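Action item from last week, closing it out:
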Amino acid sequence: MSDNQGTFFNTISLNGIMLEKSKNQARTQQDEIYSFLIEHKGKGFTPFQIMDELGYKESDVPVTSIRRALCNLQQGGAIEKLEEMEEERYGKNNHKWGIL
């Protein structure tokens, strides 16, 4: 689903092997999230729900990585950011995302 562009934002100036490893990891997360949303077409999920459903631990995959993947997928037209929101961790409302 994903291409090599736009999956990892190199704001920390990585290069060489570390940069390629980070790009591959981001691409894999994005593909996993997209596959999950395809499997659950017609239903919306918050970033935290996606993280839990995929078995990601926040210590290994921060919720910001999930949000990055969702934004990339939305910008590519693959998924939608829904108007529906749900209060989650930290007492904040989170938008749901999905394929309708």
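Closing note: Confidence is low (pLDDT under 50) at residues 1-5.
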